[in-house]
Each structure stands twice: as structure tokens, then as C-alpha cells.
Amino acid sequence: MLAGKGFKKVFNVAGGITAWDAKTAIGPQDLGMDLFSGKEQPEDVLKIAYSLEQGLYDFYISMEKEAKHEKVKDLFARLSDIEVKHQMSIYLAYSDISDEEVDKEGFEKMVETKALEGGLSTKEYLDLFNPDLNSEIDVISLAMSIEAQALDLYQRVSIKIKNPGSKDIINKIANEEKVHLESLGKLMDSL
Asked: How far is it, in rounded angstroms, from Cα 72 to Cα 68?
């Protein structure tokens, strides 16, 4: 199943998930699902996705201000820049399919930020992972955890969404989360 979704390295663990001795997605299976009714039109999906990206951007900006070491501050700035680019791609996708013409500022006014990617709040992520915000490795690990949670959420939402156009958008966003994870993995390897 995972290999069919584009994952290049898939390991079969004898004993299944109970034998797995590493990080897994956290929380109940319905975590973040309340953000989606399943009846969203494509434009609605993009608004929700944008809000999740905005939540993560805000998180990275606030963590940049709290970080003490310059390298970690720079890392949070890079992470927030990535979210800005992802937001722009979501906004452009909205512009392409929407009947109404709306500039980015107008679009942002239609969006309500409720959570970060993956469905948790800033405090919930910090409480769960308790990262050392002065360690580049901890910061990248936290970012990878958030992106993995987002990927997991979008894959679960894809099953719930009824509208084929909305489902296509969710799957495209999930694939972008895979790219984010790959980029973070390369960044981790560089350290």
C-alpha cells in the first residue's frame, strides 16, 4: 500500500505495528477530522488547507522569536519560508478554480486558522514532543513530526471526502507533504 503511494523505502516489520519501536503518528484516528465534514467543495478544502499552513507558519515565527541560538533561529525562518511558499501554491490553486476573483489578502480574510497541520495546536505539539528549541536536530524532528501528522490527516480526509475534485486536491496536498518530509529528511542528513 505504501509503495503504491510513492514511498521508496518500505519496511515490513515482523509482528506488525506492535513490534515497531520508533515514532508513529500520534493521537486518535479521528484527530483533526473535525476540520472536515466530508462534504467540502474544492474551494473549501483549499481554505482549510491554507488555514493549517497559516497555523504552522505562525508557530514557526513564534518559535523563531523564542530560540536563543542563531542557527536555530535561521532554521525556524527557513521553515516558515517553506510554509509561505506552500500557502502561495494553495492560494494559486484557489484562484484557478474559483469563480470569484479574489486577491491574496481577500482570500486570507476568508480563512480561519484553527490548528496547525496535522490537527493539533501549538501547545499540544510542544507538550507531546517537548523539543529542545535550541537544538537543530530537535527542531527538524518536530517539523518532521508535524509534516507526518499532516500527511496522515490528509490521507484520512481523502477517504472521507465525497466530492471527486475535493478528493483530488486533498491527494495533491498530501503529496506535497511527502515532498516536505523528504526535504526535511535531507536537511536532517546534512546535520
From this structure: 8
Number of domains in the chain: 1
* Residue 72 located in a structural domain: yes
Q: What is the CATH number of the domain that holds 75?
A: 1.20.1260.10
Please tell me the pTM assigned to this model: 0.78
Tracing cell 503529496 back to the chain, one arrives at 175
The domain containing residue 92 runs over which residues? 39-190
For 16-48, the DSSP string reads GGGG--S----S-TTTTGGG--S---HHHHHHH
**Cell matching residue 15:** 509482528
Question: If we measure between CA atoms, which residue out of 70, 52, 73 comes closest to residue 62?
Answer: 73
Domain-located, residue 8 = no
| pLDDT tens for the 191 residues of the chain, in order | 566 677 777 666 666 555 555 555 556 676 677 778 888 899 999 999 998 888 888 888 988 898 888 988 999 999 999 999 999 999 999 999 998 889 999 998 888 766 666 666 777 777 877 888 888 898 888 888 888 888 888 898 999 999 999 999 999 999 988 988 888 888 888 87
